[in-house]
Structure formats: structure tokens, C-alpha cells
Amino acid sequence: MIDNTKNNHDEGTYFQIKGPKRIEVKLKGSRFIASAEKVVNEDEAAAFIDSISKEFHDATHNCYAWRIGAGKRIRYRYADNGEPSGTAGLPIFRVIEGRNFSNIIIVVTRYFGGIKLGTGGLIRAYSKAAMDVLKECEVEKTYPIEIAKFKTSFEFVSLVHNIISSFKANLVDSTYSDQPIFKIEIRASKFKEFKTKLKDATNGQVEFLDF
């Protein structure tokens, strides 16, 4: 099993699936059943692996790979589940990564058919199963989001709203008590520019908050 955190400085778009999908590939008597699902955290990924393992409890192997997150920090994991090292989980992961998918898990279940496929055959089979299930998925293009919370003075409220609108950010919440406080969602690649614009426009009278 491999578990890692990958730094990724590309803040461009990536792909994710909209919902579950399953396909089956047969090769020399073996059945490869690929199940894909959208997940947004490790708990969801673990739950999906557990559900597939229970559904196909009599299978020879339940191998998987998942990739979660985007932008500067991506988490991923893959496992061969008893297949020769590097012949199952890694090929599935390479399909996911190579096609720039995230927030996804693919579990490929194998029922052994009596004929050994060899290292190369296994890599091709698991790769094909992963590629085929992705082809059947409904896909959406998306991009990393930064969530920010900040406060400023009442005199800048209209200006702040204009800047939020100009950056096509989403105003999640706003409160007006002692000071106006805003919570926004903005495309990660635009966040640095947004902060600079906001500080310049308010003469530095803006404070970003932890939450």
C-alpha cells in the first residue's frame, strides 16, 4: 500500500466524476470489475473500499487507487491487495493521475480465471479496467477553490462587494456587527491577486481571519 502527499503547483482545471459507475472486463478467463465513485475525503474513500470488499467478498483481489484534493496539495493512495507489487494499484492510479482526475476512487475487483496473466498482462488489465470505467463516467471540469474570511471597515462595504463581483467570487456569508465580516469562495489561482486588490483598495484596512 502506498500513501503519499503530492505537491502540485498547477492551479489549473482538473476533472471529477459526478457519480458512481461500474464496468466489467474479461481477459483470459479472469473478470475485472471496475467500480468508480466520487469522494472528497479519506473517510469516504475508506468507506467505499469497505463496501466493495463486502460486496465482492469472494473475489480474488480488490485493488484500488484514489486521488483527493487539488492545487498545491493532493493526497493519494493505492494498493495491490495481494497482486504482485506494482501490477494493480499503481496502474489504476496512473490512469487517474494521467487524465487529471481528482476526488475519485476506483476499485478493480478481480475474479481469477485460472490462467496467469504475468506482470505485463496484469498491468494492462488493471489499466484497461480503470480507463474503461472512466470513459463511462459523467465528467465535470472544475478548479481548486480557496475559502477566505476577512473583516474591514463599514466605509468599504460597497467597494468590497464590487471587488468580490469583479473576481467572480462567491459570497458565502457576511455579517455586520462591530465590523463587516465576509466569507468568500474564490478560484485559488486568483486568490493572491484578490488579496492584493482588496488591501490596495482599502488602504490596508482589511484583516484576513482564521476559521
SSE order and pairing:
Blueprint (H helix, E strand, L loop, with lengths): L1 E6 L6 E4 L3 E7 L2 E9 L3 H14 L5 E10 L2 E7 L9 H10 L5 E8 L6 H19 L2 E4 L2 E8 L4 H10 L3 E7 L3 E8 H14 L4 E4 L2
Antiparallel strand pairs: 1-6, 2-8, 3-4, 4-7, 5-6, 5-7, 9-11, 9-12, 10-11
Fold and architecture overview:
With 211 residues, the protein is α+β, with helices and mostly antiparallel strands. The protein has two domains: 141 residues, 2-Layer Sandwich (Ribosomal Protein S5, domain 2); 65 residues, Alpha-Beta Plaits (2-Layer Sandwich), CATH 3.30.70. The protein has five helices and twelve strands. A six-stranded antiparallel beta sheet has the order 1-6-5-7-4-3, with helices on both faces. The protein has a four-stranded antiparallel beta sheet with strand order 10-11-9-12. The chain has a two-stranded antiparallel ribbon with strand order 2-8. It is elongated.
Report the strand count: 12
Strand content: 35-45%
For the largest beta sheet, what order do the strands appear in spatially? 1-6-5-7-4-3
* Helix content class: 25-40%
Global outline: elongated
CATH architecture of the largest domain: 2-Layer Sandwich
Question: How far apart, in Å, are the first and last alpha carbons?
Answer: 34 Å
User: SS-based structural class?
Assistant: alpha+beta
**H/E element sequence:** EEEEHEEHEHEEHEEHE
Low-pLDDT residue spans: none
What is the count of structural domains? 2
Index terms:
211 residues, 39% strand, alpha+beta, 6-stranded antiparallel beta sheet, 12 strands, 5 helices, 4-stranded antiparallel beta sheet, Ribosomal Protein S5, domain 2, Alpha-Beta Plaits, elongated
